[in-house]
Automatic annotation (TrEMBL):
One of its GO terms (cellular component) is fungal-type vacuole. Belongs to the glycosyl hydrolase 15 family. GO terms for biological process: polysaccharide catabolic process. Substrate binds at W218. Residues 553-652 form the CBM20 domain. It catalyses: Hydrolysis of terminal (1->4)-linked alpha-D-glucose residues successively from non-reducing ends of the chains with release of beta-D-glucose. Its EC number is 3.2.1.3. It comes from Sphagnurus paluster. SMART domains: CBM_2. It comes from the Eukaryota. The chain crosses the membrane at residues 21-39. GO terms for molecular function: glucan 1,4-alpha-glucosidase activity; starch binding. InterPro entries: 6-hairpin_glycosidase_sf, 6hp_glycosidase-like_sf, Carb-bd-like_fold, CBM20, GH15-like, Glucoamylase, Glucoamylase_active_site, Glucoamylase_SBD. This is Glucoamylase.
Length: 652
């Protein structure tokens, strides 16, 4: 999900697509007026939704006619606008468009659920060849080939299935969930290019659907998978314990959870690839889901008497929570997604983190980036706004209206497009926020979230608004409607059969990239559930405290590595070392580690590197500012569990 990232060094550069920014800003009232005119009668709404499902994406004819329709309406709308206050008009319109979303949810829910189950082996109708409990990312085998299982996608999908089962919505899911536990128990033990189960293999992002290792180049490791898998399994474990089935938890689930969370506790402070598999650095989504997993892991351990892990995991959870605060960009008011990578850092990564670490009992806590926190709302606005001018299909939408959103504005994968799952995530964060405001009977606007709330009430000021106030009522109605409008955007670009691909084309809205993306279906289902006001349940975010003082790092166990390379050089030329881990500066030629020429022509350096870890590296030459890399392939090494080791090689 996924620019295929075969990490050769120096990396090949992809030329970004040239873009012309077309920004057409129309007033809120005009855009709302369109909505009002369109959805003013139930009959109209019905026609529109039928039209959406029946639209033909090949010629885009329906869209042209829809925009033509808007054009004709403009003068009528302007007259309405003068007659109604902008706010009242918007609120009225929002209420109408929710009827359209009701119909979409009713039609799409069973399609999404069936689409999701079709992508799970061994019985799923689109997943031939997948072992029992294996989630395929998509049945697509070419352009792109997604017929693999990703630990992250599978865990997010199964979390939604486990939640459905626990809520009593579908009792037939039990065997399927047990299959997932079985498949993950096997996968953890599969040796792969990231290592064995004890040397980093748990960070391997994807496997074949036969449960064999995938051995081609890829952006590895990815450290969110073990955390997300733990969260899914812990949710199931807590339910089993409530059914007096602790025996099964202790015997079957706990060993898997413990391996994953020991990995998280040791490795959270090491770089890995982000959820889009493109940037190796620290990543907010990864940190946030790691924090959650460690906290609920501690609670589970206490429940079943596995107290040996409690102190260590709690310490690391505190450290992660401390580190999470450092991603905040106070100047522009958003949570930065990745610490490296040379992008703005404005990315769906952080909204995804917010919904997947939502704890309805934690209020609007900003330290854990709860959906209704001032930081998460501010960040959401910055994220949404970053797509207003770059996608053709967002043209003409008011500056405070819902738009199609993608992964991040600099995206060039398939030329960079809106994704179903990222647009659903915006809606879901807002539905989650509404759940908490309703439960607490008030809503607080701070200087940090002011710009977000001004989208709905331009005159709003910071303060707490009780549910009895008209400002609260107005805001909640407008935000609910705003959330619905994001769902309506996805509805508009959902084809007649209700299938959800990965993306839809930025200028026409035609579905694009992998068909039947399992994660797209899961994202629809969780957004729809949040829209109904259903939550499950707390993971313990309520009482956590950010440690005072400087954040503690955690390098995990290290060993001493001495690198000796025989290299003849000219005067003024020097040899450096860089590689795929933090200790070797993450492939950065600028920060590469200098070797000593004391034993010339052998150049040497000794570095502390993580124990029990596979990594890649190369030597580079620097001469008069020019960098020369060794030839491919990257060199590889597996480090021992303790002690020290030497690497003796010649420049190539
Ligand atoms: C506990 O759960 C497992 C997994 O679903 C099941 O196989 C087992 O029968 C359950 N045991 C009891 C006593 O309910
Ligand atoms: C490790 O943690 C320290 C302290 O929070 C932080 O400064 C550093 O950026 C972290 N590095 C990674 C890769 O997580
Ligand atoms: C590598 O070289 C060092 C010093 O040049 C030497 O002491 C060591 O034995 C060598 N190690 C191996 C495995 O060849
Ligand atoms: C296990 C659990 O937390 N179940 C809850 C899921 O959510 C519903 C509705 O919010 C509650 O009624 C359940 O108790």
């Amino acid at each position: 999900m996924r620019r295929q990232s075969s990490m050769k060094h120096p990396p090949s550069k992809t030329a970004p697509r040239a873009r012309t920014a077309h920004l057409i800003i129309v007033g809120c009232a005009v855009a709302c007026g369109w909505g009002l005119a369109l959805f003013s009668t139930p009959q109209n709404a019905h026609q529109i939704i039928e039209g959406l499902f029946a639209s033909n994406y090949k010629d885009g004819a329906w869209q042209r006619s829809l925009f033509g329709f808007f054009g004709h309406l403009t003068s009528r709308i302007k007259m309405r606008v003068t007659a109604l206050s902008a706010l009242g008009l918007c609120a009225g319109v929002f209420a109408q468009s929710s009827a359209v979303v009701d119909q979409y949810v009713a039609k799409e829910s069973p399609i999404a659920k069936a689409g999701l189950l079709a992508n799970i082996g061994s019985k799923g109708s689109r997943s031939a060849g997948a072992k029992a409990g294996v989630v395929i990312a998509s049945p697509s085998t070419v352009d792109p080939d997604y017929l693999y299982t990703w630990t992250r996608d599978a865990a997010l999908v199964y979390k939604s299935i486990i939640d459905q089962y626990i809520r009593g919505e579908d009792n037939t899911l039990r065997a399927n969930i047990d299959d997932y536990v079985g498949a993950q128990t096997i996968l953890q033990q599969v040796s792969n290019p990231s290592g064995t189960v004890l040397t980093g293999g748990l960070g391997e992002p994807k496997f074949k659907i036969s449960l064999d290792a995938f051995t081609d180049g890829w952006g590895r490791p990815q450290r969110d998978g073990p955390a997300l898998r733990s969260t899914a399994l812990i949710t199931y474990a807590n339910w089993l314990i409530a059914q007096s089935n602790s025996t099964h938890v202790v015997q079957k689930l706990w060993p898997v959870i413990k391996l994953d969370l020991d990995y998280v506790a040791n490795k959270w402070n090491s770089s890995g690839f982000d959820l889009w598999e493109e940037i190796s650095s620290a990543s907010y989504f990864t940190s946030a889901v790691q924090h959650r997993a460690l906290r609920e892991g501690v609670t589970l351990a206490q429940k079943i008497g596995q107290t040996g892990v409690v102190a260590g995991w709690t310490t690391q959870a505190d450290n992660v929570l401390c580190f999470m605060q450092s991603y905040w960009n106070p100047t522009r008011g958003f949570m930065t997604s990745n610490t490296l990578g040379g992008r703005s850092g404005i990315d769906a990564n952080t909204a995804l983190a917010s919904i997947h670490t939502f704890d309805p009992e934690a209020g609007c806590d900003a330290a854990t980036f709860q959906p209704c926190s001032d930081k998460a709302l501010s960040s959401l606005k910055v994220y949404v706004d970053s797509f207003r001018s770059i996608y053709g299909i967002n043209k003409g939408i008011a500056a405070n209206g819902a738009v199609a959103t993608g992964r991040y504005s600099e995206d060039v994968y398939y030329n960079g497009n809106p994704w179903y799952l990222t647009t659903f995530v915006v809606a879901e964060q807002l539905y989650d926020a509404l759940i908490v405001w309703k439960a607490q009977g008030s809503l607080t606007v701070t200087s940090t979230s002011l710009a977000f709330f001004k989208q709905f009430v331009p005159s709003i000021t910071a303060g707490t608004y009780a549910s009895t106030s008209s400002t609260y009522t107005t805001l909640v109605a407008a935000i609910r409607a705003h959330a619905d409008d994001f769902v309506a955007i996805n509805a508009k670009y959902t084809p007649a059969d209700g299938s959800l691909a990965e993306q839809y084309t930025r200028d026409t809205g035609a579905p694009l990239s992998a068909k039947h993306l399992t994660w797209s279906y899961a994202s629809a289902l969780t957004a729809f559930t949040a829209r109904k006001g259903i939550t499950n349940g707390s993971w313990g975010a309520k009482n956590v405290k950010v440690p005072a003082g400087q954040c503690q790092s955690n390098q995990g166990p290290v060993v001493k590595a001495t690198f000796n390379v025989v290299a003849t050089t000219v005067f003024g030329e020097n040899i450096f070392l860089t590689g795929s881990i933090d200790a070797l500066k993450n492939w950065s030629p600028d920060n590469a580690i200098a070797l000593s020429a004391a034993g010339y022509p052998t150049w040497s350096v000794t570095v502390d590197v993580p124990a029990s870890t596979n990594f890649e590296y190369k030597f580079i030459r620097k001469f008069n500012g020019a960098v020369t890399w060794e030839s491919d392939p990257n060199r590889q090494v597996a480090t021992p569990a303790s002690g020290s080791f030497n690497v003796n090689v010649s420049w190539r």
